[in-house]
Automatic annotation (TrEMBL):
Keyword set, alphabetical order: Aminopeptidase, Hydrolase, Protease
InterPro entries linked: Creatin/AminoP/Spt16_N, Creatinase/aminopeptidase-like, Creatinase_N, Pept_M24, Peptidase_M24B
Domain Peptidase M24: 154-356
A GO molecular-function descriptor: aminopeptidase activity
Naturally occurring in which organism (per UniProt): Streptomyces rhizosphaericus
Protein name as annotated: Aminopeptidase P family protein
Pfam families, per the entry: Creatinase_N (PF01321), Peptidase_M24 (PF00557)
UniProt keyword Protease present: yes
All residue ranges annotated as the Creatinase N-terminal domain in the record: 14-146
Length: 376
């Protein structure tokens, strides 16, 4: 892992790249408000903090003093943002940042319109009426797309923590326990093993609920003969990783369960093998759908086969039929096809992988829990 000083240089380089993009687009200042984007550019910061990339100096505006130095240890670097603390009861850090940009002589300010409410956007305009507000768009998200070694290392550890929590649960008695109880136990195990918390609300879906995406656990109890779908993720130092598996409860699966599982497994394998640099996003989606359609499960498939993951659990790119763009090396994505049969249940298999060229061994699997159909 890098030291705080090393990371300070990384954050400075990221901010410099964004500065260059803003200057090329005609804005000498930018306001970054999306929490994951602020973290990407500054490190761990207080909740609600925003970053002003100003014409004079970069400023981190927050409503509280960070509990630890967010950027580096030791004397401040000349390229580090200045910290400005505004009382939360007296105003919005974004509004304070816009006012500061105007005071520093900015003629235009690029803002993340996709993150701002209409009311907040109006408040920025009112605070700096002489400053033209432009759209920064998803410039920071595009910078976040390709991960460096440190980011991937954090995600690798997050994957190990999720695998460990899931593996331990599978060694316990599951019959008679509720979906909700199992989800809470998984999240507790994640934290016990060193995760900062779950990457998203844990999915535990039994019987007719199995295979549903983002199913919220209920008081439905696990029964013999059920499919049991579990999807969980760990948050480690801000970076997420997720894994999802489907199991059969009882001594042996029924024929229809084996048939469905084999089809989803084949589709997921096809999607994983397609994760190579230069491959179109839509092609990865297409190969998974072709397998399921050929097996007779093409009706009602979900609109997304997978997505990027990192500081957020759902990032760019999107692996969908209409997605534009091609994969780059060092981009982590999920491949998570699923089929749900109403009233019966379903199967979902989910892995997080890093796109790698074939010369480097192909896609790197970050989640390694077995994908064999286990009867528990």
């Amino acid at each position: 892992m890098r030291t705080l000083g090393d990371m300070s240089e990384v954050y400075a380089a990221r901010r410099a790249r964004l500065h260059d993009q803003c200057t090329a687009a005609g804005s000498a200042a930018a306001l970054v408000s999306r929490p994951a984007n602020v973290r990407y550019l500054c490190g761990a910061v207080p909740p609600g903090a925003v970053l002003l990339l100003g014409p004079v100096q970069d400023v981190l505006v927050a409503t509280e003093v960070p509990s630890a130095p967010p950027l580096s240890a030791g004397p401040p670097r000349s390229d580090e943002p200045r910290l400005l603390v505004v009382p939360g009861a007296d105003g919005d850090p974004a509004v304070a940042a816009a006012d500061l940009a105007a005071a520093d002589g900015a003629e235009s300010l690029a803002v993340e319109e996709h993150d701002l409410t209409v009311a907040r956007h109006r408040a920025l305009g009112a605070a700096a009426p002489r400053v033209r507000l432009a759209d920064l768009g998803r410039a920071v998200e595009q910078l976040r797309l390709i991960k460096d070694d440190e980011e991937i290392s954090c995600m690798r550890i997050a994957g190990e923590l999720a695998d460990q929590a899931l593996g331990e649960l599978l060694e316990s008695i599951l019959v008679g326990r509720t979906e909700r109880h199992l989800a809470l136990e998984l999240e507790r195990r994640l934290v016990d093993h060193g995760a900062d918390g779950p990457a998203f609300p844990t999915v535990v879906a039994a019987g007719p609920n199995a295979g549903r995406p983002a199913h919220l656990p209920t008081d439905r109890r696990v029964e013999e003969g059920d499919f049991l779908t579990i999807s969980l993720g760990a948050d480690y130092r801000g970076y997420r990783c997720q894994v999802g598996r489907t199991f059969v409860i009882g001594p042996s699966p029924a024929d229809w369960q084996v048939e469905l599982y084999d089809a989803v497994f084949a589709a997921q394998r096809a999607g994983r093998e397609a994760l190579l640099p230069g491959r179109a996003y839509r092609d990865v989606d297409r190969v998974t759908r072709q397998v399921l359609t050929a097996a007779g499960f093409g009706d009602g498939l979900e609109p997304c086969t997978g997505h990027g993951v990192g500081l957020e659990i759902d990032e760019d790119p999107r692996l969908t039929p209409s997605a534009m763009g091609k994969l780059d090396a060092c981009v982590p994505v999920t491949v998570e096809p699923g089929v749900h049969l109403p009233g019966r249940g379903g199967v979902r298999i989910d892995d997080t992988l890093v796109v790698r060229p074939e010369a480097d061994g192909g896609p790197e699997l970050l989640t390694i829990t077995t994908k064999e159909l286990l009867a528990l």
